[in-house]
Amino acid sequence: MRLAVEEARKGLGFTAPNPAVGALVVKDDHLLGKGWHAKAGQPHAEPLALRDAGEAARGADLHVTLEPCCTHGKTPPCTEAIKAAGIRRVFIGCTDPNPAHAGRAYAILREAGIEVFEEILSGTCQELLRAFARVQRTGIPYVSLKLATSLDGRIADAAGTSRWITGPESRERVQAFRREVDAILVGTETLRRDNPSLQPRPAEGHRPWRIVPDRTGSLPLTLKVFSDENRDRTLCLLGPEAPADREQALDPAGVAWMRVPAGPEGLLWAEILPELAKRSMHHILCEGGGKLSADLLSLRLVQEILWFQAPMLLGQGGRPAIAADILFAEAPRLRRTAFEALGDDLFARYLPTSS
Q1: Which of 7, 46, 287, 304 is catalytic?
Q2: Is 46 a catalytic residue?
Q3: Angle of CA points 291, 294, 295, to nearest 5°
Q4: Model confidence, pTM
Q5: pLDDT digits over 145-164, tens only?
């Protein structure tokens, strides 16, 4: 199953609205075929692995990270391909999180005389599809909040300088995270100040969406997100007060836009995120700044925090990673699930205990 997981990881960042899935065909400890789902509408991992194995698949075992599909969509049901190939046993990493499908494949395969073994390395397999599972269950994307700060929690100094707080090893890890997500979100002030491209380097074929909050329609159209070769992967969020001619300016450039609701304090993210999920943005990496991070955290819309800390102190005048006054009783409680040194920096992954 660990090898199947490695196959599945090849699809991260490409498959939405489908999950990343990997599959292997094995007989007598010999690997006969392997496959991974590359893109929605293309063959799933199981038929690709079966095709790779050919006739040798008859009487073999199939190892797959997710319960096979059992309904017709853009592709035929994988359960039918498994039966037709003559597979003897199926080892499944985790159950389909879609309540309408969960467990159905197990029954179909067992009725066909195929042995089924469930929940093999299930924690690792569930981690692979955590964004898909969240959207299936809630209709809301999985949001990873990336913070790159000094030890005292600052994302820039008093003058607004932030390049580079963290070292090259941390920045390389961030690029790897960018290659695994469907979209990258940053705050308006970050866009104005840093003019980031928000594309992974190297891209390795990945082109995540760039979500650009522009409540008043006043961001300069010369920013990279509006003018570079990936501008067709920019989604501009226009608030109600943004002028109508803003839409007319974005259309010729090939930039996508949508009107979104706003309140006195800013955009209404609890209403916006489900709309982004409908656009197949299931896993969103938020890279700040301080107000956007605070807004998402206060609404309990963050599923994990990816925190990079550099060995420096920027003091009281520095810009905070979370630009909000939080009372002790209301502070989000976090559980650390990973911790490592990256060069001179420290990296930790935290999950809110309420998620």
Answers
A1: 46
A2: yes
A3: 85
A4: 0.92
A5: 999 999 998 988 888 777 88
